[in-house]
Automatic annotation (TrEMBL):
This is Group II intron maturase-specific domain-containing protein. Residues 1-129 form the Reverse transcriptase domain. Pfam families: GIIM, RVT_1. Transmembrane segments: none annotated.
Length: 269
């Protein structure tokens, strides 16, 4: 472990830098240490009276007494404590979590720690989680969809890739890079309310690729460009492959995966 921490970092500029503190971003050691250090929080919440160990009847009794129930969702060092109670309950549990983490030499970041209501929403692991009124009804549901920051990040990657890819290379070179990037991003955000975002991203990618083709063939008019690279239609493709279209990805909205994802805590109640 010490060898990992002291191994240093080779940057994108191919300059080697020594590491004297912290773990390198993207290192396999970072999530491992996060899981080791934050396991104390998992165990504390699991043993709590309103946590996952409580039965259905216990939770009902706590609600009648005005006491909170809660669940912890954690991925490496990103975690979210979901509280069924008041804002004061959430603030109290936040302080309780801070005390538990202090025993491991950890502290909550004031800039990244947020106490919010589900109607106001939150960003977690690239998702926007927020309760909205369903259109045409008076019922409210919790929706999960790609956060604006996540969408902006993938759009920036597409733009950068189109700029970095020289026009002297075959069209396939650009398609391979973009397709790999877009498939991974859409696979991650597929289980959510993502159709509108996928359609928007499709339109943006189409525009960037057409811009690249126009740079590659500045003397071609629009009709010639479509005939050569779109088969007379509208969607870009080469002889070997087609540009991946996020708009064609079918989402799996509201898929429950709680019983599929392995958990160290027994399911009770």
């Amino acid at each position: 472990m010490k060898a990992f921490l002291k191994s240093g970092i080779l940057g994108e500029d191919r300059v080697f830098r020594e590491t004297s503190a912290g773990t390198p971003q993207g290192s396999i050691l970072s999530p491992l240490l996060s899981n080791v250090a934050l396991s104390v929080l998992d165990e504390h919440i699991a043993r709590g009276p309103g946590g996952p160990a409580s039965t259905f009847n216990d939770r009902q009794k706590r609600r009648r007494r005005g006491l909170p129930n809660y669940r912890l969702i954690r991925y490496a060092d990103d975690w979210c404590l979901v509280v069924s109670g008041t804002k004061a309950d959430a603030e109290a549990l936040k302080e309780e979590a801070a005390q538990v983490l202090s025993t491991m030499g950890l502290r909550l970041s004031p800039e990244k720690t947020l106490v919010t209501h589900i109607d106001e929403g939150l960003d977690f692991l690239g998702w926007r989680i927020q309760r909205h009124r369903k259109r045409g009804t008076n019922k409210h549901y919790v929706y999960t969809y790609p956060a604006r920051k996540a969408l902006a990040a993938v759009m920036a990657k597409v733009k950068t890739q189109c700029r970095r890819t020289g026009t002297d290379v075959p069209f396939d070179t650009l398609l391979i890079c973009l397709n790999r990037m877009l498939r991974g991003w859409c696979a991650y955000f597929r289980p959510g309310v993502s159709s509108a975002v996928f359609q928007y991203l499709s339109s943006y990618v189409w525009g960037r690729v057409i811009w690249w083709l126009r740079r590659k063939h500045p003397r071609m008019n629009w009709k010639q460009l479509r005939r050569r690279y779109c088969g007379g239609g509208w969607w870009p493709a080469s002889e070997e492959r087609e540009l991946f279209s996020p708009a064609r990805v079918h989402t799996t909205r509201y898929r429950y995966r709680g019983s599929v994802i392995p958990s160290p805590w027994p399911i009770t109640g």
